[in-house]
Amino acid sequence: MTSPASSDTIKPSNFLRQIIERDLKDGAVTRVVTRFPPEPNGYLHIGHAKSICLNFGLARDYGGVCHLRFDDTNPEKESQEFVDAIIDAVHWLGFDWQEADKSHLYLASDYFATMHQAAVLLIEAGLAYVDEQTPDEMRANRGDFGKAGVDSPFRSRTVAENIVRFAEMKDGKLADGSAVLRAKIDMAHANINMRDPALYRIRRATHHHTGDAWCIYPMYTFAHPIEDAIEGISHSICTLEFEDQRPFYDWLLARLAESGLFKNPLPHQYEFARLNLSYVVTSKRKLAQLVADKHVSGWDDPRMPTIVGLRRRGYTPEALQLFCERIGVTKADSWIDYSTLEGCLRETLDAAAPRAMAVLDPIKLTITNFPADHVEPCSAPVHPHHEELGKRNFGFSKELWIDASDFQAEPEKGYHRLYVGNKVRLKYGYVVECTGFKTDASGKVTEVEATYFEDSKSGSATSGNYKVKGVMTWVSAHDAVDAEVRMYDRLFTDEHPDAGGKDFLASINPNSLKVVTAKVEPSLAASTADQKFQFERHGYFCADRVNHATGKLVFNYSVGLKDSWGK
Ligand code: ATP
Ligand code: MG
After folding, report:
1. Catalytic residue numbers?
2. pLDDT tens digits, residue range 20-38?
3. Nearest Cα residue to atom 15 of ligand 1
4. Gap from CA of 36 to ligand 2 centroid (Å)
C-alpha cells in the first residue's frame, strides 16, 4: 500500500499499538490486517477520517495491509454513488488498498453465499432457529437489564424443521418481516446482545450490487464477524458502541471455527472512542437530513463535516492526517474542540499557501497627490519564507480599494489605521496620510482621501524614514479583480448540537454563510481550482473547486489567522 508523507515520523503510542506489538511479538498474529468498513449509505465525514487514518495508519506502520470493505448488507439505503464517493474520499486522504497486483477492495455482499452457508451450519449444529414471533412479541420477550428474556415458542423447533423454514425464507415463500433466523444462545444472558440475536431477516429489496438475487439479508452483527474472518482480519477495530457486541462476535466465530468454516487464528475486535467534534454532527443520517432539507447546498457544502465538504472548504489530506494523529485514540468518549481541527489546517497551510491581498469589504481610497495617469509597479513575495516561489506583481495608482474597517471617522482608542491626520503604510506600497473622507446622505463613508509620500516606497532606500504604527493591505482599482468570497461560520450554534438526543436542527446557525464581492489582487485571476491562499490579514481561503470549473472566481473562507493583526 502507498503511504502518506508522514509515515517516517515517530507516532505516539496508544493502546491499539500496544496490542498489535504484543500480538506480533508473541506470534498470535503474523501480519497486521485491518479494515475500514463503511456502509455505502452516505458520504464519509470527519469521524470516518479518524477511523481511516487509524486503520490504514496501523497497517502501514506495522507492515501490514488495510482493506477497504463496503459493508453493504442493508440494501435499502445503499447506492453506487456512495460507493464511488467513499473510494474517492479514502484515496484523497492519501490511502490505498492496492498491494502489488492485489486489490484489497471488498464488498460484503460478495460474501452473501458464505454468510448463508454459515447460517445453515449454525442451524445444523442446533445453534440457530427460525422465529416467527411478531416483532412486538420478540421485543417483549427479550427482557431488559433487570429481567431475563422468555424463550420463543419457536425455539424448540427441530433442526430439520429449521432447515426447511430457513430455505423457505431464502426462497421467498415467507412475507417480509414474518420470520427471522436467530442464534440460539441464552435468553437469560446478562448481555442482552446474547439473548438469541437475529441473524437474518426477510426483505424484498433490490441490492445495488446483488440485485434481486436475495430476499433475505444478514444482520450487521452476524455479517461483520464473518466478513472479518473471510478476509483474515487480525485486528477488527470499531467504535465503543460495539463493545457489548464483542461476546457475540467471539461466540459466532468460535462456533463457525468448530464447524470447520473458519480456521484459527480468528479475528479479534477492539473498540476505541468515536470522534465527537464540538459544533459538528457526525452521523450520516443527520448529515443526509441537512442535505435533503436544503440547510446546505449538498454533501460537499463547505460547511459540512464531510470529507468532500472539508476538501471544498480548503482542508488538505495533510491537515486531516495531522488532526487524526493529534487527537490520538482512547477508550473514553470525549469531545474534541473544533479549534483543534482548525489549528491543524492553519499549521499545514501556513508553510505552503501563497499570499495575496484581498479587500473583502471595499471602499475607495483616493491618493489625491498621485498622478492620475501613473501606475507604479509594486511587488511582494509569494511566500515570505520561500523566496524561491518568486514575486507577485501589482500596481499602485491614484485609486485604491481598502477595507471599510481600515478607516474610522472618529478613531477609537489605540486605532492605528486610517483617520484624518494619521499616517499608515500601505503594505508593499507607500506611506500615506489621511486627509479627508466623503459620506453619503446617510453618513456612511463612501470614499477616503489621502496623500502619499513619494520617497516612502517599500523596499526603497528612504522607506525607513517613515515610522508608522499601522500597516494596511489594499488593492489598486486599475488592476484589482472582482471575486465572490464566501465567508463561512460554524453550522451550529450549540457546542454539542445533537448530544443527549437534542434536536440538532434547532441550533442551526442562520448566519453560517455570508457572501461578499471582494476586490482581489490580479495574481488571483490565475488561481487554479482548490488552490489555497493566505489573504494577508484575513486568513486562509481556497479557490472553490466547483465554481472554478465554470470560470467564476470564487473563494471559500477556510480558517482565520492565528494571531489577529494588531489594531
Ligand atoms: P454514521 O452513524 O455516521 O452512519 P457509521 O458508524 O454507521 O456512522 P459506517 O459507514 O458504518 O458509519 O462507518 C464505517 C467506520 O467508520 C466504522 O468502523 C465506524 O466505527 C467508523 N466511524 C464512524 N463514525 C465515526 C466517528 N465519529 N469516529 C470514529 N470512527 C467512526
Ligand atoms: Mg454503520
Report:
1. 39, 274, 284
2. 999 999 999 999 999 999 9
3. 38
4. 11
